[in-house]
């Protein structure tokens, strides 16, 4: 889906996902129906997802790591997608440099880094090596509330 100027302005006005369609319409001199239809189209096309997010530092017992992943295959996108589907993985990036992929992983007091490597990453083939970067402080990091339920 191409995002035109109007859709882009609507996205900018959504802010935290709770702005009313009427208020956005008033700000942009559009009808409420136009805003509603545009937002629904953006959601249906996968461009927009409105969901609850939480500040990781506000949650006791949760932590995050970044993992650099070196692969033995050139199918970086396929492997990135496969790893991104693991329950503890928040996101995966295809990168340049000494790693092929970088993954952000959510851990908890009841689900450790060892659990992640042994129960999830162990299932992925074509991994030559990994390097784990423990995150001890993050900024502007919000995680989807649904991720909390996945790694109990």
TrEMBL record:
SMART domains per the UniProt record, alphabetical: HTH_ASNC (SM00344)
TM spans (from-to): none
Key words, A-Z: DNA-binding, Transcription, Transcription regulation
HTH asnC-type domain ranges (all copies): 3-63
GO biological process assignments: regulation of DNA-templated transcription; response to amino acid
Entry-linked Pfam families: AsnC_trans_reg, HTH_24
Protein name, as recorded: Lrp/AsnC family transcriptional regulator
Organism name: Thiospirochaeta perfilievii
GO CC terms of this entry: cytosol
CDD domains linked: HTH_ARSR
Molecular functions (GO terms): sequence-specific DNA binding
Record SUPFAM superfamilies: Dimeric alpha+beta barrel, Winged helix' DNA-binding domain
Domain of life of the organism encoding this protein: Bacteria
